[in-house]
Amino acid sequence: MNDILPIVLSILAAVVVIGALIPVLIKTRRNITRYPDTRDANDPEVRSGGGTAVDDSTGTIERGTPGGAGTDVVDTTTVPDDAAGLETIPVETPLPVAGRLTRLRERLVRSNNIMGKGLLALLSSDRIDESVWDEVEETLLLADLGTEPTMQLVDALRERVKVLGTRTPEHVKAMLREELIKLVDPTMDRSLNVERHADKPAVMMVVGVNGVGKTTTVGKLARVLVAEDKDVLLGAADTFRAAAAEQLATWGQRVGVPTVKSDIDGADPASVAYEAVKAGIEQEVDVVMIDTAGRLQNKVGLMDELGKVKRVVEKLAEVDEVLLVLDATTGQNGLNQARVFSEVVNITGIVLTKLDGTAKGGIVVAIQRALGVPVKLVGLGEGADDLAPFDTESFVEALLN
């Protein structure tokens, strides 16, 4: 009898635990819409059994009705937030992109940029000798412009000052404006490749090192695209960082955009990305955006995995845009990151975050020179709509004001 009692107690404890877990499992199952796995099991790069799912708690998610400029929330349609129980997330209409440009430019003007203000002060001096030119050069290098662009700009300014003779602050500002615009290069195509193809969506990958804000950038960029009336689907291929998929799904829910994510911790990111593109094709969306895990540029295995994600996605559709997210405050270190990423995947554009008081404007020129690709988007704040397309003239004007 004494031998049987522990066994009976163990069985009773197991029954209690299972009984407690059943409601949780039922709720989880109810809130996940699975897609049938039609991947090629013989393909070594597409791991089967990824368990990917579309986060669509209401069965269908509808976008809010567009409202007037400056209106954040204009629709009472709500999407249940699984993590919060009964709490709901209102579907928002993002601010128009055009309105952001003015707002972000004003914020950059208020920031403490050393580049434009320093150059204006130096070149407005009564007498410009070699010591002044040395200070001009030092100012440009401290602003992360890079050695080659710095020498190019100094040579151009020397020639123009020699020809100009008398210099008023207005003349100096006009001269600097013209030369800086040349350096930033207004001829670069800064448009996003997000136009749907005849039978497939445009596909965008977002890459970068740890901690630069990729997931947040994907969420903010989704808002930009929704503001431009694009149908968007998000793919949570960052399967290593805890809560990354839920964070991305929350960003999507706020603007009525579904998210394809895995229900398995540490799932194969290439598999999740594949399922996201597959779902985008089936649902005939305009753009599929894939968020990837942060990785250090000196970790060969992680960088190889990023290349694999791109190859696997291209079995279904061409990758139209690969955006590299860089923290503008990292300065020249960002150049090293950019070069390594460009060797693994074909970078088509740069997103510069934190381009505000602690960043140095010259990094825009330096990165473009290093990669030969344009800065396409900039972030100047932590707000949901503080991401906007980069505009050369607005940027230079802000530096000089």
Structural write-up:
This protein is α/β, with parallel strands linked by helices. The chain is 45% helix and 13% strand. It has helices at 4-30, 97-110, 114-123, 130-142, 147-164, 169-184, 214-227, 244-254, 269-283, 300-313, 332-344, 363-371, 392-399; strands spanning 33-34, 52-55, 78-80, 88-90, 202-207, 232-237, 259-262, 287-292, 321-327, 349-353, 375-379, 387-389. The strands form two sheets. A ten-stranded mixed beta sheet has the order 1-2-7-6-8-5-9-10-11-12, with helices on both faces. Strand 3 and strand 4 (88-90) form a beta hairpin. Helix 3 (114-123) crosses helix 6 (169-184), helix 6 (169-184) packs antiparallel against helix 13 (392-399) and helix 11 runs parallel beside helix 12 (363-371). The model is unreliable at 23-42 and 48-86 (pLDDT under 50).
* Helix-strand makeup class: alpha/beta
Strand percentage: 5-15%
Rg over alpha carbons: 26 Å
> Distance N terminus to C terminus?
89 Å
Low-confidence stretches: 23-42, 48-86
User: Mean of residue pLDDT?
Assistant: 76
**Fraction of residues in helix:** 40-55%
Largest sheet: 10 strands, mixed
Strand order of the largest sheet: 1-2-7-6-8-5-9-10-11-12
Number of strands: 12
**What overall geometry do the principal axes of the alpha carbons give?**
elongated
Output the helix-strand order. HEEEEHHHHHEHEHEHEHEHEHEEH
The count of helical stretches stands at: 13
